[in-house]
Amino acid sequence: MGNGLENNEQLQRSMKRRHLFMLSLGGVIGTGLFLNAGYTINQAGAGGALVGYLAGGLILYMVMVCLGELAIHMPVTGSFQKYAATYIGPSAGFSLGWMYFVGSAATAGVEFTAAGILMKHWFPHVPIWIWCAVFIVLLFTLNALTTRGFAEAEYWFAGIKIVAVILFILIGIAGIFGFVSLSDRPTPFFENLAPSGLFPAGGIAIVFVTMMNVIFSYQGSELIGIAAGESENPEENIPRAIRNVIFRIIVFYIASIIILSAIFPSSELGLLESPFVTLMKIAGVPYAAGIMNFIILTAILSVGNSCLYASSRLLWSMAHDGMAPKIFGILSKRKVPLNALLFTMSFSLLSLLTSFIAADTVFVLLMSIAGISVTISWMGIALSQYMFRRKFLKAGGKTEELQYKVPFYPFVPLFCLGFCFLILVFLAFDSTQRVGLFYGIGFLIACILFYKFKLAKKVESTINVDSSNEKIM
Question: Per the confidence metrics, is the pTM higher than 0.90?
Answer without folding.
Answer: no
